[in-house]
């Protein structure tokens, strides 16, 4: 058929990609508020553990391992001396004492750098080989006499004390045997098992990476610490506090710092950070619909802003932004509300990304040292101080209800947890608390 008489091919337009959406949100109460547990579980449903990869041991320190590792070698690799002395046959020095020294022939020496076959022959009867700590034990030797029980003779050796078979010898595989389990899938890699893996020849381990967390704060009234304050300005404390809190959980943190409330600048800044973020934390600039939540984040991906029955921290935002649907959490601008929101919602997200149990944390039963009242229907988290007493830990709230007071937050050593059913608790009642360590771990 001629070229110009062919029918034109009809190219069908591809089906448009569906707009990304968030899963259905939890049902609110009659006041339009979600429960803390419902909101937290909803957030967790949108985050997955980061994929693992092989890392150098030191790079994987503090991270959960994603494989079972068994030893391919024995430790020690051969029988070796546990002390400096003389390798002997125990039977050859039976009965040796200060008043009854026994004579042996000294026929050489071995140190820890010698291999298992360092001596090269079986130990003859009534002979001794001088050994350092870690030196291989010659064949047929079955004990080591410490130096202090000998005269250290170079050719003829006098022994002034007896030993039993096995004394002062580290048997092959007595520390680690071939096939022993060194670390299990899910175990955290710490200093001790790092040493064990290195000792058995492992230089890398399969582990999940540290979540890359980008922290930024918005607000025209914010200035960086270290500069002078003008009327109406405050120092940016939130981005520093939240960055430190994320780092304490094991994250790799990038603190962007202050971004103005200009929507275009915020949008560009957030977009620029997506390439290095597994999670973004933004604090401030949420209450006005014309700022971040109202304009910027929904332009980057599906976003949710909701009321949660939590005090402080009742206003919470979340989105999945960019082509990779990176999670972003939008936290209150008041410092205490931001910190409480991190502990209640962000900390579990980071732990899940690391492959850890999201809700695993230390909870302490404490006795109230004073009466406490709470708003019913709201989970309240109070700054508190725990004191050890003869009857166990006692706890009392500190500071005022003002959620901008960082001094009280820094002074306390716990968060007192009051459930939504609480109205009045009396002195002596049992309550639950989250202890806070100085390093926030």
Automatic annotation (TrEMBL):
Record EC number: 2.10.1.1
SUPFAM superfamilies tied to this protein: MoeA C-terminal domain-like (SSF63867), MoeA N-terminal region -like (SSF63882), Molybdenum cofactor biosynthesis proteins (SSF53218)
A Pfam family annotated for this UniProt entry: MoCF_biosynth
Coiled-coil blocks: none
EC category: transferase
GO molecular function, one term: molybdopterin molybdotransferase activity
InterPro entries in alphabetical order: MoaB/Mog-like_dom_sf (IPR036425), MoaB/Mog_dom (IPR001453), MoeA-like (IPR038987), MoeA_C_domain_IV (IPR005111), MoeA_C_domain_IV_sf (IPR036688), MoeA_linker/N (IPR005110), MoeA_linker/N_sf (IPR036135)
Needed co-factor(s): Mg(2+)
UniProt domain MoaB/Mog: residue ranges: 214-352
Region (Disordered): 1-33
Pathway assigned in UniProt: Cofactor biosynthesis; molybdopterin biosynthesis
A Gene Ontology term for the protein's cellular component: cytosol
Chemical reaction(s) catalysed: adenylyl-molybdopterin + molybdate = Mo-molybdopterin + AMP + H(+)
Keyword entries, A-Z: Magnesium, Metal-binding, Molybdenum, Molybdenum cofactor biosynthesis, Transferase
Domain of life: Bacteria
Gene Ontology terms: biological process: Mo-molybdopterin cofactor biosynthetic process
PANTHER family, alphabetized: GEPHYRIN, MOLYBDOPTERIN BIOSYNTHESIS PROTEIN
Family: Belongs to the MoeA family.
Task of the protein: Catalyzes the insertion of molybdate into adenylated molybdopterin with the concomitant release of AMP.
Protein name: Molybdopterin molybdenumtransferase
């Amino acid at each position: 058929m001629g070229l110009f008489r062919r029918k034109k091919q009809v190219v069908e337009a591809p089906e448009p990609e569906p707009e990304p959406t968030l899963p259905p949100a939890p049902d609110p109460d009659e006041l339009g508020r979600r429960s803390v547990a419902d909101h937290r579980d909803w957030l967790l449903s949108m985050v997955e553990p980061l994929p693992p990869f092989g890392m150098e041991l030191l790079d994987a320190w503090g991270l959960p391992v994603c494989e079972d590792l068994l030893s391919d070698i024995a430790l020690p690799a051969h029988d070796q001396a546990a002390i400096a002395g003389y390798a002997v046959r125990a039977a050859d020095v039976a009965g040796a004492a200060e008043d009854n020294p026994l004579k042996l022939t000294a026929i050489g020496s071995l140190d820890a750098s010698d291999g298992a076959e360092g001596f090269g022959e079986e130990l003859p009867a009534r002979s001794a080989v001088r050994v350092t700590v870690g030196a291989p034990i010659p064949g047929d030797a079955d004990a080591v006499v410490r130096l202090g029980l000998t005269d250290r003779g170079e050719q003829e050796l006098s022994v002034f004390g007896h030993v039993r078979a096995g004394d002062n010898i580290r048997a092959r595989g007595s520390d680690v045997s071939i096939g022993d389990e060194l670390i299990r899938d899910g175990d955290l890699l710490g200093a001790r098992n790092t040493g064990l893996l290195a000792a058995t020849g492992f230089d890398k381990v399969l582990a999940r990476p540290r979540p890359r967390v980008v922290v930024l704060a918005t607000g025209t009234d914010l200035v960086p610490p270290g500069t002078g304050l003008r009327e109406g300005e405050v120092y940016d404390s939130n981005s520093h506090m939240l960055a430190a809190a994320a780092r304490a959980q094991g994250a790799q943190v990038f603190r962007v710092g202050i971004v103005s409330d200009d929507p275009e600048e915020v949008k560009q800044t957030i977009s620029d950070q997506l390439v290095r973020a597994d999670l973004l934390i933004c604090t401030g600039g949420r209450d006005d619909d014309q700022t971040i939540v109202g304009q910027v984040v929904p332009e980057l991906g599906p976003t949710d802003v909701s009321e949660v029955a939590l005090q402080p921290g009742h206003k919470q935002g979340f989105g999945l932004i960019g082509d990779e649907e990176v999670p972003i959490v939008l936290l209150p601008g008041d410092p205490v509300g931001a910190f409480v929101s991190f502990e209640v919602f962000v900390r579990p997200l980071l732990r899940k990304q690391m492959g850890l149990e999201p809700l695993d944390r230390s909870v302490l039963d404490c006795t109230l040292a004073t009466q406490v009242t709470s708003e019913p229907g709201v989970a309240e988290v109070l700054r508190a101080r725990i004191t050890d007493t003869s009857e166990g830990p006692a706890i009392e709230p500190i500071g005022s209800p003002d959620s901008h007071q960082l001094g009280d937050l820094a002074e306390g050593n716990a968060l007192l947890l009051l459930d939504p059913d609480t109205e009045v608790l009396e002195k002596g009642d049992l309550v639950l608390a989250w202890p806070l360590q100085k390093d926030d771990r």
